[in-house]
Amino acid sequence: MRAAVRAEWLKVRRSSVGITISLLLTFALPLMGFGMYRVAERGGTSPLALKASAFLVGEGWVGYVGLVAQIVAVALFLGVGIMTSWVFGREHADRTFPALFGLPTSRPTIARAKFVVLGWWVLLIVALIVAVTALLGFVAEVGPSHFGDIAASLGKLSAIAVLAALLALPSGYVASVGRGYLPAIGALIVVIAVTQIVVLLGTGGWIPFAVPGLLAAGGDLAPTDVQIALVPITASLGIWLTVRWWRNAESNS
Amino acid sequence: MSAPPILARDLVRRFGDELALDGVTIDVVAGEIHAIVGLNGAGKTTLMRILVGMARADSGVSMILGHDSGSAPAALWSEVGHSIESQFAYPELTVVENLSTAAELHGVPRSEVSDLVSNAIEKFELDHWKDRRSRTLSLGNRQRLGLAAAVIHDPSVLVLDEPTNALDPSGVVFVRALLTDAARRGSAILVSSHHLDQVARIADRITVLHRARIIGSLDPRESDPEKQFFDMVYGVDRTLDGGG
User: Any chain A CB within 8 A of the CB of B87?
Assistant: First the structure.
């Protein structure tokens, strides 16, 4: 397992995909949230100001971090999903998958190692997003708030980020079955679109993919504990299916 | 008597309506180079894929070092090297990183990886490109890298599909020397090739696979292996297609 983890970590560190997505997620999401917060704070009747105000869930730090959290709920799902799709799908796109047969390091072990590395990477990205969000807030003096409110907001942001990332892991299964990252990225976009529509129909948090967004929105829409528990169950199912596929797959279709 | 390191018996594999292997039986003993030759689509790659567990047979027996290829214990594969369908060459990794990764995944202890990689780079004449990412390598050097990754752990069983593809003449000579040297040290080697004259120079046995079946063998010592091959292939075609 250690050899496989080292191999996967090296691939992620060396890939332009990994570096680009990491930078985008780390800096773009907090900056977008901060920009929306400033627009909402200033007020006005422009379409952007009205939209930003509609998403504001509080004042000062609570409002600012809340906006970042709502962006993270969707964008991190997409970003981690693209990364997961690449980690699994690239073995097919780059035609390296056949070379992973006939090794003492089994393919299920390699698949598990990919998830281990993705887990480390997600924790790092979430920590960086929270750090950049906090730094931006302090530097720009978002507003007076108690330390407790700031800590609670950032804690909630972390939780939403982890939930969004967990939901993206099943894209590894789609990338494996689809033998490439493009089918999985397509599936991610479909999931985002369908989730938006289904939530509007009133299913609420019973669709696991809606849970991070509803948690970020808060209020009456906030998911229940049972609904939140569906998220790790969905992720576990995706991981299990992926590892099973890697155990049984042939080298090409 | 123990089973030969590579053994396929009565292998059958279909892809939909297409019969890819039809009762193929073949073996390779230790210290032997056994070449399979055949036209495109004859079933050579499918046979090799089944032997190293990349694909399953519909029926028949496929064994490596006395174990079923589909359920062999993981540790057994540290004795096997292969290059089939593609090379172990991650485009974002350098030559050194690719070889180190291949060695580790083949079960080489970490303490030995660095020396093995240095030796492989020297042996495969990749020194000039060792710090280059493999995406920047020429096709021939990528093939050299793939072969180096396949044999870096000094396996006792080698399964190589068209190992001289994309290589320049000196590369072809190098691969011939690599295989004869490995066989001399006791490795069992199954190799496929389109180049009959090349395999005739190194193979102990040459088996002809055509239209999913083994249709005969060629004598490597004969002067014109191409004529033997085409006589055999066209003879079978005439029989099967009912031609004159």
Answer: yes
Record: contact B76-A104, CB cut-off 8 A = yes
CB spacing of A6 vs B104 below 8 angstroms = yes
Mean pLDDT, residues B117-126: 93
Give the per-residue SS3 of chain A: CHHHHHHHHHHHHHCHHHHHHHHHHHHHHHHHHHHHHHHHHHCCCCHHHHHHHHHCCCCHHHHHHHHHHHHHHHHHHHHHHHHHHHHHHHHHHCCCHHHHCCCCCCHHHHHHHHHHHHHHHHHHHHHHHHHHHHHHHHHCCCCCCCHHHHHHHHHHHHHHHHHHHHHHCCHHHHHHHCCCHHHHHHHHHHHHHHHHHHHHCCCHHHCHHHHHHHHHHCHHHCCCHHHHHHHHHHHHHHHHHHHHHHHHCCCCC
Contact check, Cβ <8 Å, A104/B106: yes
Query: A76: distance to nearest CA of chain B, Å?
Result: 24
Position B84, amino acid: I
Instruction: Establish how many alpha carbons lie within 13 A of residue A207's alpha carbon, considering only the half-sphere containing its beta carbon.
Output: 19
Distance from CA of A93 to the nearest CA of B (A): 11
Give the count of Cβ contacts less than 8 A between chain A and B.
84
Helix (H) / strand (E) element for B164: namely none
Cβ of B157 under 8 Å from any chain A Cβ?
A: no
Lowest-confidence segment of A19-28, A41-50, B74-83, B183-192 by average pLDDT: A41-50
Q: Would the pLDDT of A100 be above 70?
A: yes
- Chain B residues 162-191 within an 8 A CB cutoff of chain A: none
Dump pLDDT digits (tens) for B134-181. Answer: 999 999 999 999 999 999 999 999 999 999 888 888 888 899 999 999
pLDDT at B1: 59
* Percent of chain A predicted with pLDDT > 90: 68
Q: Tell me which residue in A16, A96, A250 faces B86 most closely, judged by beta carbons.
A: A96
Confidence of residue B236 (pLDDT cuts 50, 70, 90): confident
Q: Is B19 helix (H, G, I), strand (E, B) or coil?
A: strand
Beta carbons within 8 Å of B183's beta carbon, 6+ residues apart: B31, B32, B33, B189, B204
Q: Report the gap between the CA of A215 and the closest CA in chain B (Å).
A: 38
* A30: confidence class by pLDDT, cuts 50, 70, 90: very high
- Please indicate if any CB of chain A lies within 8 Å of the CB of B132: no
Contact residues, chain B, for A250 at CB < 8 Å: 49, 54-56
